[in-house]
Amino acid sequence: xxxxADATWARGDLRRQARIDLAACHRLAARFALNEGIDNHLTxxxxxxxxxxxxxxxxxxxSEVKASDLMELDFSGKLVxxxxxxxxxxxxxxxxxxxxxxxxxxxxxxxxxxxxxxGMLEEAGLEMAVQSAIGFHGQLAWYDYNGLAxxxxxxxxxxxxxxxxxxxxxxxxxxxxxxxxxxQAFERLYFLERAxxxxxxxxxxxxxxxxxxxxxxxxxxxxxxxxxxxxxxNRSELHxxxxxxxxxxxxxxxxx
Length: 256
Hints:
By secondary structure, the chain is an alpha+beta fold. The chain has one domain (5-255): Class II aldolase/adducin N-terminal domain (L-fuculose-1-phosphate Aldolase, 3-Layer(aba) Sandwich), CATH 3.40.225.10. The protein has eight helices and ten strands. An eight-stranded mixed beta sheet has the order 4-3-2-1-5-8-7-6, sandwiched between helices. Strands 9-10 form a two-stranded antiparallel sheet. A hairpin with a 4-residue loop joins strand 3 and strand 4 (79-81). The radius of gyration is 18 Å and the shape is globular. It starts with a helix and ends in a 6-residue tail after the last helix.
């Protein structure tokens, strides 16, 4: 099939922007201390494909990932383009989640400290005690720790546990956050950590959390659903654009 030249350009432009956005996710996660050494992984599907995804080479700090560094892998695990090391757990977690969860165009897996701490508690849960937590009402799934993800079956179990939710809390491990775009996924990752941080700080006082009444929770969830845009522009896109401007001023090489 012959593709018009302008269509080819448009497709390439979308892929270039996707690379830039995923590189930005790495830099921003490092800036907000959501990373852990060279571990954890952030991926997204390649625009125009439902069976290929971008992944940073293993061994890079997230603070040094650039758009041009990202490798492209297919759903057989084959490296389609780029070069670098493909870490086993990245493949075995992200590939099955991308394949089995339709809402997971972008998959962010981190060991960010406050969300991980919540998952370490015997009675783990994100309490509806702060507005940022209410934004995740009904969106959290939970998964018990089974050791390192060294085969695809572990990622498949994670995808099944995630279901149609946007967040999988990995007990004794970390978190897996998904979205339809890097902007949406990163905003969820950011506010999840803020909500968990607020809960940990409140509990550190030794006093009892004041839980928001159920009727107010339901009304607030409806408000969240009704105000996803400002001036016709998606809030998560506005937030992500602002964060990329922050990078543009101090570490613009992320887009190279």
